[in-house]
From TrEMBL:
Pfam families in UniProt: PALP
GO biological process, one term: L-serine catabolic process
InterPro entries per the UniProt record, alphabetical: Ser/Thr_Dehydratase, TrpB-like_PALP, TrpB-like_PALP_sf
UniProt-recorded name of the protein: L-serine deaminase
Domain Tryptophan synthase beta chain-like PALP: start-end pairs: 19-304
Cofactor(s) demanded: pyridoxal 5'-phosphate
Source taxon at top rank: Eukaryota
Keywords: Lyase, Pyridoxal phosphate
Listed GO MF terms: L-serine ammonia-lyase activity; threonine deaminase activity
UniProt keyword Lyase present: yes
Amino acid sequence: MLELDEIKRCYQRTITEGFVRRTPLFKHIQQLVPGLSNTVHCKMESLQYEGSYKLRGVSNQMMDCDPNLTYTSMSAGNYGRAFARMLELKKGKGILFMPETAPKERMEYIRSKGVPVETRKTSELEGAVQDLVHTSNAVYLPSYDDRRLLAGYGGIALEIMEDYPEVDVVIVPCGGGGALAGVAATFQLIKPSVRVFGVEPVNASTMYESLRKGEPQTLNRNNPPTIAAGLMPPNAGLIPFQIISKAVEEIVLVNEDEIRKAVLDLFKSGLKVEASGSVGIAALQSNKIPNLTKDSNVVVVCSGSNVTIRELSKYENDANISL
């Protein structure tokens, strides 16, 4: 488990040095977004630099990177954007591996920051990274299974508590599990009565299956890809799994139609949130979070804003919903 001093030191340093910014808590969004029956506040990590919470962890992970070394990692987009930003700020060098299914706009953006991008099938990403490490002495930075990342993500929980100490339910998107683990571990330390839930797509239920089977699982590649591309890493992270299994009440699952509806409802309400960042709203709209009452004080982490007009139009067509 993380230590509170560790989380607070990381938060203070990344904020003070300007690598991340405090994000707002948009209150009472049930007045804007249809299908929400509880008091719901959104932690808008979609308004973080580079459009997602990832920079909170990556700035801590790469705070002291050596400009003489080459760094490498794998990402479907948001970690990659944060990775590219830190390399730019630190004048470092790096190579990023991305799944072939990642949105092309994200690849182009990362390349525009001067970071070479190579694509692979999701099942081949880890092997490609390890090959580069062995052949060129590149330094591998895990994109979700790293204590430094989790400590950075704990800052989300610190800010929620400062802005809304009455909180009793927190809902966090889950892919490799880094953000969920960091938030859950921090609430265990500052307000253990808070019920923390993770949300995964049905088509990428890796952490859900890991908890069910008692050990980290790999992505089920027999499932079709989810539109929440940021939530389908090759496997569940070991460190996140160890924390989530103790500090998270439950992982709930949402399907593709539920995710599309959440993205479009948020957009129509004036909130630009990508599919991966909208799964918490999807879970609430579809009544997947158990034992909520009218008095529950709910915070949903909306974790990213990197969605294009082209993607929104496709969701609209697929869902047969008019924006």
